Amino acid sequence: MCGIVGAVAQRDVSSILIEGLRRLEYRGYDSAGIALIDDNKLQRFRALGKVNELAVKVNPNQAGAIGIAHTRWATHGVPSENNAHPHFSRQKIALVHNGIIENYKDIRTKLLADGYEFESETDTETVAHLIESYFDGDLLAAVQKAVDQLEGTFGLGVIVSDDPNTLVACRKGSPLVVGLGIKENFVASDVSALLPVTNRFIYLEEGDLVVISQNDYQVYDANGEAKELTINTTELSADAINKGNYKHYMLKEIHEQAKAVADCLEGRISENNVLDSVFGPESERIFKQVEQIQIVACGTSYHAGYVAKYWIEELLGRPCAIEVASEFRYRQSVVPKDTLFVTLSQSGETADTLAALRNLPMEDYCGSVSICNVPESSLVRESSLVLMTRAGPEIGVASTKAFTTQLVSLLLLAISIGKVRSMDKTIISDIVRELIALPRQIESLLFLDKQIEAIAENFIDKHHALFLGRGVHYPIAMEGALKLKEISYIHAEAYPAGELKHGPLALVDAEMPVVVVTPNDGLLEKLHSNMQEVKARGGKLYVFAHQGAKLEEPGEDVVVEMDCETRWTTPILSTIPLQLLSYYVAVQRGTDVDQPRNLAKSVTVE
Ligand code: F6R
Predict the structure, then answer these.
(1) 179 near 17, Cβ under 8 Å?
(2) Do 310 and 427 lie in a common domain?
(3) Of the residues 172, 309, 483, 601, which is catalytic?
(4) What ligand 1 atom has the least distance to the C-alpha of 603?
(5) Element (H or E) spanning 513, and its range?
(6) Residues 379-428: pLDDT tens digits?
(7) What CA–CA distance (Å, rounded) separates 389 from 392?
(8) Is the residue at 604 inside a domain?
(9) Does the CB atom of residue 188 touch ligand 1 within 6 A?
(10) Which CATH number covers residue 38?
(11) How many DSSP H helices and E strands does the chain contain?
C-alpha cells in the first residue's frame, strides 16, 4: 500500500526522503514521487516503477530543507507518472495521501466549477485543491477544514510553498507516525522509514492532525484541541531491516522462523504449561466466560485462524467460527452469548480486519483478543487483550514467519482458555513439549532447501497447480496454494482432498502438479486413497510426507520426507517446505519475489 515520508530539517532532506521510500518499498507500490520547497518554490520529481528510478531523476543540485515523498499503490487511476504523488494545487500546495477518498467525485465537481484544473485521475488531487481553496495563510486551518469534508480513510502530508518550516499531517484510518529528531522532525507511514534518522516516535491516533517544524511539533485531535501523546523509543535498529546475506527478504524470513518461534515462546511457557496471564491480567476473567470463539482475519492470517478452528474445537470442545474480515464486517452475524472475538493480523493495519473490530457490538461479546506482529499498530492499540507474535519485521510481501508465529500464538491461546476451564493437564504438557521442540525441528526442515529447489524446476512451465489436504492440513494446503500463486503467478487452488471427486478431479492430467502434505494422522488412509485417484488420472504427485506417512508405492511421485514425529505442531512444520517450494518456483520463474505485482504488504484500504 502507499507509503508517506515527510521531513522538516536544517539540512537538505531529499536523501532522507528517498531512503525513507526505499524502506517502505516492502509495502508494495507502482510509482513514487517527492516534492521539496526550494527558495519558496515547489519542486517535484516523479517516476513510474521503483524508487531507484525516482532517485536517478532527483536533481542533485536541488536542495530543500522541507519535503514530502510517496510510494503509490494505484486505486483511482492507472499507475502513471501523472497519477503519482505528490499532487500540487496551483503551484502552492503539495500533498501526499494514503487511502481512499470516497466522496471525491462530488468535491471534484464543485472544484471544477470554481475553476480548478485537474492533471490526474486520482482522488488525491481533489484534496490538494480543496486545501488550496481554504488556504489563507494558515495551513493547519485549511487542512482541518478540508478534512472535515472528506469521507473515507486517509493519511495526509501537506506543505505549502511560501512556508518552508511547516508540514501538516493527519490520519483517519491510515497509520501515521511522527519521528522526533534534533532540530528536525519527520512523519511517515511506519517507523521503518525513519530508523536511520531517529528512534523516537509518536503514534498518531484516529482523527489526529499534527503540525511539525524544525524545532517543534503539536498534535491536535479531530475537534482541533491541542493534545499530548506519549513519546516512544523503538528498539528496532536501522539494520534490522536488511536482507543480510540472503538474496530475498522472503528467504531470510523463512530461515528466521526457528528464532521467531523461540522468541514467540520466550517467557510464556514453562516446561509443561503456558504461564498465567500471557494474554494480560484481564484474560483469566474473560477466558472463564468463553463459550465459543469467532476468528476474523484476511489472507494468510485467515489461514492461521482456520487451522486454529480445528485445534480449538478439538481441544476445548467449543464451537469456533472463522471468517474473512471483508465478509464479516458487512454482514449481520448471529452471535451466541459469551463469544470471544479474535483478530489475527501481521501488520495490525489491515483495513477490513480493523473495521471488523471497530464495528463490533462489544456488548454481544465477552471480550476481544488480537494476535499481531507490530506492537505500534492500530489493532494492538484498539484491542482489549493482545498477544504479540514477536516474529520481528516481515518485509517480504508473502507472509512466512508471521504465519508460523501466529499458529504458535493460537496454540497458546487455546491452552490459556483451556487452563481456566480445566483442560486435561497431560494434553497441555504434550503440546508445550512439542512447542519447545519446534524451533529445532524447523531448523532441521530447512535442510530440505536444496532438494526442494531441485523439485521446483518441475513447476517452471506450469500454469496451474492443485494443493490437497485433509483436516487441519486443509488450511495448510490453502496457505501453500496462496504462497505459490502470489509470488510465482501460477494459478494454484487448494481443496480438501475428499472434495476431489466432486469436481476438481476433472482438471487432473499429466500437466497438473498436485501437491499434498501427508501427516501421519487418523486421516492418512483416506488421504492415500485420494492420492490414488490423482495417480489413476495421470496426475503428478508432489508429496511432503511426515514420518510414518510415506506412500507404499511411490512410483513416479516426487516424495520429500519430513523427519518429525509430532501431533499438535504438525501443521506448523508442514508449512516450511511449502514456503520453500513457492519461493524456489518464483525465483526460477524470475518474478519479483519480495514485491510481487499488484500486491501490497500492509493493506490499509478495503
Ligand atoms: C499473503 C499475505 C496476505 C496477508 C493479508 C493480511 O502472503 O501476506 O494475504 O496475510 O493481507 O495481512 P495482515 O496479516 O497484515 O492483516
Answers:
(1) no
(2) yes
(3) 601
(4) 11
(5) strand 513-518
(6) 998 888 999 999 998 999 999 999 999 999 999 999 999 999 889 999 99
(7) 8
(8) no
(9) no
(10) 3.60.20.10
(11) 18, 25
The mean per-residue pLDDT over the stretch 24-53 comes to: 92
Nearest-angstrom CA–CA distance, 465 and 447 = 24
pTM here? 0.83
Return the amino acid letter for 284: E
**Residue 188 dihedral angles phi and psi, to the nearest 5°:** -165, 160
Q: Nearest to residue 595, comparing CAs of 26, 17, 1, 13? A: 26
CA of 253 to the centre of ligand 1 (A): 15
Whether 119 and 256 map to the same domain: the answer is no
Ligand 1: distance of its center to the CA of 300 in Å? 5
Q: What nine digits make up the cell of 552?
A: 507404499
Angle CA 320–326–329, to nearest 5: 70
Do 271 and 149 belong to one domain? Answer: no
**Nearest atom of ligand 1 to the alpha carbon of 483:** 7
> H or E element: which one contains 440?
helix 425-445
DSSP bridge partners of 212: 167, 217
Asked if residue 301 and residue 206 are part of one domain, the reply reads no
Helix (H) or strand (E) holding 42: strand 41-48
Looking at the structure, tell me whether residues 476 and 580 fall in a common domain.
yes
Contact between 533 and 499 (Cβ < 8 Å): no
597 domain-assigned: no
Do 163 and 47 share a domain, yes or no?
A: yes
pLDDT band at 598 (very low <50, low <70, confident <90, very high): confident
In a domain, 603, yes or no: no
Confidence check: pLDDT of 554 > 70: no
Does residue 56 fall inside a structural domain? yes
Cell numbers found for residue 467: 494443493
Ligand 1 near 347 CB (within 6 A) = yes
Task: Please count the structural domains in the chain.
Answer: 2
Domain of residue 226: give its range.
3-240
261 lies in the same domain as 222: no
Confidence of residue 527 (pLDDT cuts 50, 70, 90): confident
Q: Which of 240, 261, 282 is the last residue of a domain?
A: 240
Segment 149-177 shows an average pLDDT of 93
Q: 393 and 417 in one domain?
A: yes
CATH code of 391's domain: 3.40.50.10490
